[in-house]
Amino acid sequence: MNSFFPTEDTIAAIATAVSPGQGSIAVIRISGSSAIEISKNVVHIPGMHHWDTHKVLYGHVTEASQQKNIDEVLILIMKGPRSFTGEDVVEIHCHGGIISVQKILERILESPNVRRAEPGEFSQRAVLNGRLSLTQAESISELISARSRKAAELAMNGIEGNIQTTIQSIRQRLLDQLTEIEARIDFEEDLPNLEEKNVKNEISAIRKDISKLIDNAKKGTWVRSGLKVALTGKPNVGKSSLMNRLSKKEKAIVTDLPGTTRDLLESEIVLEGIPVTFIDTAGIRETENIIEQIGISRTQQALNQADLIILIFDYSKGWTKEDEAILKQIPTINPLLIVGNKSDLKSNHSFENEKNNILDKENLVIISAKTGQGENDLINYLLELCGSSQIHGLEIALNERQLDLAKSAQESLENIDKVFNEKLPWDFWTIDLRQAINHLGELTGDDLTESLLDNIFSKFCIGK
């Protein structure tokens, strides 16, 4: 973003996804003092019409010579401050695709006093003009990128101001404590004594509320970003078959030949509101095939980056030395689920004869990717590991930026314990209280800085 304050420029951008052959309509958004004048110059509307606010007009966008039409369009007029940005806004609804949309935008950008919008600039102007709070603007971006119904629900709660209200309430409680303390510093002789223990108890209660928000933010991360689950094991144990079974799609080629999967394949499903991405990896074994070696190398990378690892073995053949060797290569920091596949095949193998009976492991599920036997047990285990039961009552969840500031506020309040224990004067209490209040003010946007806005809105999509 070029400036902390809205510029006098009128800005324009395509506000909808653009793809060839996809989408029946597209929207081009124009915002600024020249939005209506520019629109009048590029659109020909037959007859006499008044460009009144919150009115829809019909016409054609024409080339500069006005000899040819570019597209048939609808014009939506929203004069400030009753618009998304608080400025005059015009939306041109044209046919979808690529060519006509781009030609209309180019036609608009030929006008003086207009430029292409930066990422998130419409939302930034909405915040600066008081149409949206900072957390509401962030929630709009999260709603656009939501990958599950629960993620969309959390984003909508943010748009409705639930995050803003919650944080501002906590911040006001801290301000009340700071006001009481500063009053004692300035007018100690004229006011009754302030009990340190009472102040500390209130601050401890506030810390608990912030801690709850921090814990919920972690659950919100699962909902927004989802979990990555890597499927690993020897070649031909049914990793690809299991992924196809869980995703209900034939994403991976399945054959009886070992080493069929040479690269990483991904498929996503949503389990109880949490997006889960399954990564089908190359089977791990000793091989001279260079391509397969590359696939195995990528498997190791995927295991290190996964939130959960599923180690699959052939149940019909039993737990082998190769399976045990793969188990030892799996990062111990990751949660692990062991899956015995091909339970539908007849087996003469006796697990009881093994030195370390695999059936004794608590993290074991027996399934058949072919018939679906045991699939529900596997899904229930995954849901338990995902913590799905913990997100049902989740109403708000801070994003990464907000979470970092909440943690900083929490740390500042924790420092007050030391001040209390050492019986330091009230002046020392105010230092940490002010820091916590400032962190929460930055979270809600009550304390705005240019670098803060630039960093936040640069991550938005263009046109939003």
Strand content: 15-25%
Distance between the termini: 13 Å
Uncertain spans = 250-263
Look up the CATH topology of the largest domain: Rossmann fold
The CATH class of the largest domain:
Alpha Beta
What's the total count of β strands? 13
Strand count, sense and barrel status of the largest sheet are:
7 strands, mixed
Structural class: alpha/beta
Shape: flat
Helix content: 40-55%
Any idea what the CATH architecture of the largest domain is?
3-Layer(aba) Sandwich
Average pLDDT figure: 83
Rg over alpha carbons: 29 Å
Number of structural domains: 3
What are the main properties of this structure?
Gyrase A, domain 2; 6-stranded mixed sheet; 464 residues; Four Helix Bundle (Hemerythrin (Met), subunit A); alpha/beta; 7-stranded mixed sheet; Rossmann fold
Architecture overview:
This protein is of the alpha/beta class and 464 residues long. It folds into three domains: 122 residues, Gyrase A, domain 2 (2-Layer Sandwich); 114 residues, tRNA modification GTPase MnmE domain 2 (Four Helix Bundle (Hemerythrin (Met), subunit A)); 165 residues, Rossmann fold. It has 14 helices and 13 strands. The protein has a seven-stranded mixed sheet with strand order 3-4-5-6-2-1-7. A six-stranded mixed sheet has the order 9-10-8-11-12-13, with helices on both faces. Helix 4 runs antiparallel to helix 5, helix 6 packs antiparallel against helix 13 and helix 12 packs antiparallel against helix 13. The chain is flat, with a radius of gyration of 29 Å.
